[in-house]
């Protein structure tokens, strides 16, 4: 596995890449991509880091697993490639933005425009076998992405962490809540959203308000 990660992250995570768990993970990923169709494409596994330098991070959105359908995953949580139909969770995210911010529902589900503004779109597991949800969980990715969250918590301040759903909320234990902001709600998936746990959370306007208070540019959602 080619750890094609942006230089500013390499400075902080180099020690992680030489740990035994990461070596085991690298072997597993190489075998999986060699034997099966996996997503995202190899060159896009670390896209979340490529498009959001360490020094630029101001918001962290934590997902769980990449999409496992054909052509969907692009290495950013909740994001899909251009001209790909929007999955249900992404539809509900855009509906909440429309309601919260008055921004029209977008044509593109590619969230690279968020990443380029300092939003780290981090899945806990960065790869998946095609049509096999969760197939690369508990192979080492979570250890790596937990280390990323802890690094951001330790080295930065005034980061807005968006924790949507039970899985993401568990990551709060990795975050120093005395110097960062936590916005938690239900997951945008229909199962949660339709029970009233997602719509109306106003996380997008709240995020921007917190960023402005910290003297940072708001995100153009």
From TrEMBL:
<keyword id="KW-0234">DNA repair</keyword>
<dbReference type="GO" id="GO:0097510">
    <property type="term" value="P:base-excision repair, AP site formation via deaminated base removal"/>
</dbReference>
<dbReference type="GO" id="GO:0005737">
    <property type="term" value="C:cytoplasm"/>
</dbReference>
<comment type="similarity">
    <text>Belongs to the uracil-DNA glycosylase (UDG) superfamily. UNG family.</text>
</comment>
<comment type="function">
    <text>Excises uracil residues from the DNA which can arise as a result of misincorporation of dUMP residues by DNA polymerase or due to deamination of cytosine.</text>
</comment>
<dbReference type="InterPro" id="IPR036895">
    <property type="entry name" value="Uracil-DNA_glycosylase-like_sf"/>
</dbReference>
<protein>
    <recommendedName>
        <fullName>Uracil-DNA glycosylase</fullName>
        <ecNumber>3.2.2.27</ecNumber>
    </recommendedName>
</protein>
<dbReference type="Pfam" id="PF03167">
    <property type="entry name" value="UDG"/>
</dbReference>
<dbReference type="InterPro" id="IPR018085">
    <property type="entry name" value="Ura-DNA_Glyclase_AS"/>
</dbReference>
<keyword id="KW-0378">Hydrolase</keyword>
<dbReference type="InterPro" id="IPR002043">
    <property type="entry name" value="UDG_fam1"/>
</dbReference>
<keyword id="KW-0227">DNA damage</keyword>
<dbReference type="GO" id="GO:0004844">
    <property type="term" value="F:uracil DNA N-glycosylase activity"/>
</dbReference>
<feature type="active site" description="Proton acceptor">
    <location>
        <position position="65"/>
    </location>
</feature>
<feature type="domain" description="Uracil-DNA glycosylase-like">
    <location>
        <begin position="50"/>
        <end position="211"/>
    </location>
</feature>
<keyword id="KW-0326">Glycosidase</keyword>
<dbReference type="InterPro" id="IPR005122">
    <property type="entry name" value="Uracil-DNA_glycosylase-like"/>
</dbReference>
<keyword id="KW-0963">Cytoplasm</keyword>
């Amino acid at each position: 596995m080619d750890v094609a990660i942006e230089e500013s992250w390499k400075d902080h995570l180099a020690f992680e890449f030489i740990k035994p768990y990461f070596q085991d993970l690298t072997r597993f990923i190489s075998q999986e991509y060699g034997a099966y169709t996996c997503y995202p494409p190899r060159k896009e596994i670390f896209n979340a880091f490529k498009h959001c330098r360490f020094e630029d991070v101001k918001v962290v959105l934590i997902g769980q697993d990449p999409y496992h359908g054909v052509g969907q995953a692009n290495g950013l949580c909740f994001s899909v490639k251009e001209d790909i139909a929007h999955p249900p969770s992404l539809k509900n995210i855009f509906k909440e933005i429309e309601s919260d911010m008055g921004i029209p529902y977008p044509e593109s589900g590619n969230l690279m425009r968020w990443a380029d503004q300092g939003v780290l779109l981090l899945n806990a597991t960065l790869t998946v076998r095609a049509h096999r949800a969760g197939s690369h969980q508990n192979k080492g990715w979570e250890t790596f992405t937990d280390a990323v969250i802890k690094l951001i918590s330790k080295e930065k301040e005034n980061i807005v962490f968006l924790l949507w759903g039970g899985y993401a909320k568990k990551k709060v234990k990795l975050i120093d809540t005395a110097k960062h902001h936590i916005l938690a709600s239900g997951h945008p998936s229909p199962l949660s959203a339709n029970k009233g746990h997602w719509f109306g959370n106003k996380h997008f306007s709240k995020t921007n308000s917190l960023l402005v208070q910290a003297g940072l540019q708001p995100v153009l959602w």
